[in-house]
Amino acid sequence: MSRGGDGGGGGDYGGTTTSIHVTALDGLVNVNSLFTVAVFVGLSIASPGQRSLEGRSECDPGLDVARNLLIFEVVSFSFFLFSSLVAQGLKLAINLLNSNDIDEAFRAHISARVLRFGMLASAVGSVLGCIFLVLSMVQVIQIRLGLLSCGSQSAVRSVAVLVTLVSTALAVYIATIFYAFTH
């Protein structure tokens, strides 16, 4: 599937532009799509004025928690959309670069630097989207289970598990990206 080229740092990125790049970008877009669904689920579950399941009125969230939820969800969605659009653009360029069915005048030419920068930008967008999604999920937990500040044990445990697991997964993802870009 690859086309000839120098595959080096500054020229057209042809020789090493393979289906592996497209597959990696497809995976990123698919994961972003799943996370985008989570954004809308978070918005649909929580509504302002809800009473928490804690049962104590001091544990019920105020409008600031609902406002933060909305802000974090919108920012998270924006990062996932940014990441997906960059990845889709790179996929289009790679597919045009490798296509034998189009005239040379319409063939895409993408440099190694542009490809690497685009893939990195897309990955960073996903990481930031995840961070804001976690922040929004903390707000959902506070709305449903009670404010963290009132000592709701179920809310504290839920947030601890969420932050621990997602932080671990993000650390592995970032380490993998770092390794891929340095080797």
From TrEMBL:
Q: Where are the transmembrane segments?
A: 28-48, 69-94, 114-138, 159-181
Q: Which UniProt keywords apply?
A: Membrane, Transmembrane, Transmembrane helix
Q: Does the keyword Membrane apply?
A: yes
Keyword Membrane among UniProt keywords: yes
Quote the protein name from its UniProt record.
Answer: Maternal effect embryo arrest protein
Organism, by scientific name, is: Zingiber officinale (Ginger)
